[in-house]
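#lab-general

N.A. 3:47 PM
ok so I finally got the sequence cleaned up, no stray characters, all 307 residues accounted for. can someone with queue access submit it? mine expired

B.Y. 3:52 PM
send it over

N.A. 3:53 PM
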Amino acid sequence: MTADVFESLAYLYDGTTEGLFSAIFATYANHQQPEELAPESSHRPRLGQTTLFIPTQEDHAFRVQKGLRRVAGWKAAQLILHGSLTDEPDSPTCIYRCVRLAMELDRHRPCSSCKRRNHCKGFQNKSERCPRIGQRLCRDSADPVIGRLHRLNRSVWNEREHVLQFARFEHLDSGLWFARINPKANVIPLAMNHFSARFNTQPFVLYDEVHQVAGVSNHGQWQLVNTSEWDQSTQSLGSLAPEEATMQQAWRAFYHAIGIESRYNPELRRHFMPMRFWRNLTEMKAPLPSTEPPLPSGADSDNPRLR
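B.Y. 4:20 PM
back already:
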């Protein structure tokens, strides 16, 4: 059955990865090809555009991911999954087009012109995947859609590296370690394995205040928690441990001590340390108290020798 093309139709979802894949499943179930997929919270409908909200159904999202792995292989499926974690406004539509491209390539396999067809399981058994589909999704950066997918994937992994570098954990009196981050992509699922291996048996919480997602780990096992009221719930986690304030002050002293004033370059600093992370960095929260000796009583403060 030929799918009807709606030039001014947009599918909306709740902003989660499961919601995006549920919306992609609905495009096939409804035999429609929407022009745009977008989170409901950030979508601004254009003049004459029709919107349709798709509720999240985990079984539908799982079927889309399973179909991707069957058609394109695990590596290509992970590439699409990681690309969906970014906050770029065009990423949902790009992910949808990549999924549809993979399915169309599987439907119209170029087996007749393939030199490997005599040794390919996909040619002998149509239920097996064609290796060319996964190779195209992973390598064909010249294609506008696939090239955009690779750029999205690269930005997500760059944001993960920022989280690994700039996450600052605070030790609470309850024994819990807590850190806030504000990345441009939902990268907590990609960063939790790293922190779980480092903390090992120590319980910790890594909270993404932008996407309202928290990674909770205990004894090396972690899970994701979705919450929109984490600011209020953090009060019950406990206050700072007695030694935490001392350690934070020591870290600030070390940070300022290794700085070379004559080589200070603010533009380069903002390039390697984006300003959006500064509010959660221990070394940037408060200035160090002055370590200069007090002026003698009655001294003239305008005397340059006493400054």
